[in-house]
Design a protein that fits this description.
The complex is a heterodimer of chains A (181) and B (300). By secondary structure, chain A is mainly alpha-helical. Chain A has one domain. Chain A is 49% helix and 10% strand. A 3-stranded antiparallel β-sheet of chain A has the order 1-2-3, with no helix packed on it. In chain A, helix 2 crosses helix 3. The N terminus of chain A is likely disordered. Chain B has one domain: Metallo-dependent phosphatases (Purple Acid Phosphatase, chain A, domain 2). Chain B contains 7 helices and 13 strands. In chain B, the strands form 2 sheets. In chain B, strands 4-5-6-7-9-8-10 form a 7-stranded mixed β-sheet, covered by helices on one side. A 6-stranded mixed β-sheet of chain B has the order 3-2-1-11-12-13, with helices on one face. The chains are: A mainly alpha (181), B alpha/beta (300). Chains A and B meet through helix 1, helix 2, helix 3, helix 5 and helix 6 of A and helix 3, helix 5, helix 6 and helix 7 of B.
Chain lengths: 181, 300
C-alpha cells in the first residue's frame, strides 16, 4: 500500500498523472503483446532447433541467422508501434521520466555518459542490431523501473532510443525514439 | 616496408624472449589462475600478451583464465573467433587451460553459446575452484533477475573466497570511462552484505589496483589487448596503476592468502603482492529492493 502511495505521489510530480487502474491496464496490454511475441519466438526456435553450447562459431552464426529469418517471416509487415503502441509508449515515457527525475537520476546519467553512448541512428523493426556496434550498457536503476521482460528479450538504450531486442535472433523488435533525454 | 616488418617481428620476438620473473609461491593444492580483460583485438599486441602468458604458464601452471569482457572486438564472424581468441591462446587451450568469459559491451550475447568460453549458454553464472567461488556477471544488463540470482547464489555459497568479475568497473581512475556509479549503487551493498572478497573488472584500457573499498579488494584490468596510454588520473583510491603497456595478472589462492602478480607483455612485473582474506560475517538475508513503479502498477 505504501509503495502504491509512493508511486502515485511520484507520478504526480513527474509527467502527466495516469490513473492507477489505467496504468495497470496499459502494462497488462504490454505484457500480452510480449507474451504473443515470445510464443512466436518459441515456435520459430522449435523449427530451427534450440542452440546448445558449441565449439563452432559457424553454428552460432547460423542459428542466429535462422532465428532472424524465421521471425522476420513470421512478423512480415510488422512495424514500429506494434508492441510500443502510442499508449504503451506514453506509459514507458512516464516510467522513464519517473526514474530520470528520481534520486538515482545523477548516477544514471553519469553511467549513460560513461557507457560509450552511440550516436543516434535510424532503426527498423525486424532489422538486425549491427554486430560490430558495441552494446551500450543499460543502467540497472532504469531496468528496475521498467516492466520485466522474459529471457528472450531485453531493453537496450542506444543514444536516446529505447530498443526492444530479441537476444538470440539479434533483431530489433520495436523501439521508442527520444525515450531518454 | 619489408625492412619495417622484419624490424617489427624482431622487436616482438625480443619482447617475448624475456619471460617474467615470477614470485608466486606455488603452494600445494592452491588455486591458480590468470586474468585478462579487453583482450580480443586480434592484433599483434594481443598475441604478444598471450605468448607471455604461455611463457609464464611453464613456470606457474595456472588451470584457468578469467576473461573480463570484450573478448571479441568488432565483427563476430567465425574467422573473428579464430583470430581474436583461438589463435592467440592456442598453446594454452592445447594444454587444457580453461577460459571462463564474462560479456563486455563489445561482445555479442550469443558468445555465451561458444563452448571454449565455458558460459554454458548463460549470461551470468558461477563456478568453484578449491576454496574459491567465482561469480561471473553480465554488467551490460544488470536487471532485477540477475541481481536476485546474485544475492541467492552468494547467500548459498560457503566459499572462503568469493570473487566476482564482470566488465564495467565500480571503481576506476580511468579518464575514458571512470566508475559506473549506477552499477555500484546496486552491486556494492550486495557485495558487502554477502562477504565478497575480490572484484575484478575491465572496460578501462589500463591496469589499476584500488585501495580496498568497504573491505573489498578491487582490480581493473582492461589492457590485455587494448591500451589507452596515460589514461589514468590517479586519485587517493588508487593503490597501483599502470597505463603504458598491455598486461595480464596471475593469481594464486592458498588458504587465507591471495597472491597476485601483474605482468606486462614485455615480462616486467607491474604489480605484485599478497592479500589476506577479509574477516567478515556475511549477511544471510536478502537486501530489500524497492518495487519498480511498473511492477507496483501492474500488480494492482
Amino acid at each position: 500500500m505504501a509503495i502504491l502511495a509512493a508511486c502515485s505521489a511520484m507520478a504526480q510530480t513527474a509527467g502527466t498523472p495516469v490513473p492507477a487502474n489505467r496504468g495497470a491496464e496499459i502494462i497488462q496490454d504490454f505484457d500480452q503483446r510480449i507474451g504473443d511475441y515470445v510464443k512466436l519466438h518459441k515456435t520459430v526456435q522449435s523449427e530451427v532447433h534450440r542452440l546448445k553450447p558449441t565449439k563452432s562459431p559457424e553454428a552460432i552464426e547460423q542459428y542466429e541467422h535462422r532465428m532472424a529469418r524465421g521471425i522476420r517471416a513470421a512478423r512480415r509487415g510488422s512495424g514500429q508501434g506494434d508492441i510500443f503502441t502510442p499508449e504503451i509508449t506514453a506509459e514507458f515515457r512516464r516510467l522513464i521520466e519517473l526514474t530520470m527525475s528520481g534520486p538515482e537520476a545523477g548516477a544514471i546519467r553519469e553511467s549513460l555518459r560513461h557507457s560509450e553512448p552511440l550516436a543516434t541512428r535510424q532503426f527498423r523493426v525486424n532489422s538486425a542490431y549491427p554486430a560490430a556496434t558495441p552494446l551500450q550498457s543499460s543502467p540497472p536503476s532504469l531496468l528496475m523501473n521498467l516492466p520485466p521482460l522474459p529471457a528472450e528479450l531485453e531493453y537496450r538504450v542506444v543514444g536516446h532510443t529505447l530498443i526492444l531486442r530479441d537476444i538470440e535472433a539479434n533483431l530489433i523488435v520495436d523501439f521508442i525514439v527520444n525515450a531518454i533525454n | 616496408m619489408r625492412r619495417l616488418i622484419v624490424l617489427l617481428l624482431l622487436s616482438s620476438a625480443a619482447l617475448i624472449e624475456r619471460a617474467a620473473d615470477l614470485s608466486l609461491p606455488l603452494k600445494p593444492d592452491s588455486v591458480r589462475l590468470a586474468v585478462i580483460g579487453d583482450s580480443g583485438t586480434g592484433e599483434k599486441e594481443q598475441f604478444e600478451v598471450a605468448q607471455q602468458m604461455t611463457a609464464c604458464h611453464n613456470a606457474f601452471p595456472f588451470d584457468f583464465v578469467v576473461m573480463l569482457g570484450d573478448n571479441i572486438y568488432g565483427g563476430h564472424e567465425p574467422s573473428d573467433f579464430k583470430r581474436k581468441f583461438e589463435d592467440p591462446y592456442a598453446t594454452l587451450l592445447g594444454a587444457g587451460v580453461k577460459f571462463y568469459a564474462s560479456l563486455g559491451n563489445h561482445d555479442v550475447t550469443n558468445e555465451r553459446f561458444y563452448k571454449p568460453f565455458n558460459m554454458d549458454g548463460k549470461r551470468y553464472y558461477s563456478f568453484k575452484r578449491g576454496s574459491a567461488e567465482f561469480f561471473v556477471l553480465d554488467s551490460n544488463y544488470m536487471d532485477p533477475d540477475q541481481l536476485s540470482w546474485l544475492e541467492k547464489t552468494l547467500t548459498d555459497s560457503n566459499a572462503r573466497w568469493k570473487i566476482c568479475y564482470f566488465h564495467h568497473p565500480l571503481y576506476s581512475d580511468g579518464k575514458t570511462h571512470g566508475p559506473d556509479l549506477d552499477l555500484r549503487k546496486e552491486l556494492e551493498p550486495i557485495f558487502v552484505a554477502h562477504g565478497v572478497n575480490l572484484v575484478l573488472a575491465g572496460h578501462e584500457h589500463c591496469y589499476e589496483r584500488i585501495q580496498p573499498q568497504k573491505g573489498i579488494y578491487y582490480f581493473v584490468l582492461g589492457s590485455s589487448g587494448q591500451l589507452r596510454y596515460h589514461n589514468l588520473r590517479p586519485s587517493s583510491e588508487m593503490a597501483k596503476g599502470f597505463d603504458t603497456d598491455r598486461v595480464f595478472a596471475l593469481m594464486e589462492i592458498a588458504g587465507d592468502q591471495l597472491y597476485f602478480q601483474t605482468v606486462s607483455r614485455s615480462g616486467d612485473t607491474v604489480d605484485a603482492g599478497v592479500l589476506p582474506v577479509q574477516i567478515r560475517r556475511p549477511a544471510r538475508t536478502q537486501i530489500e529492493r524497492r518495487a519498480s513503479p511498473a511492477m507496483a502498477t501492474a500488480s494492482r
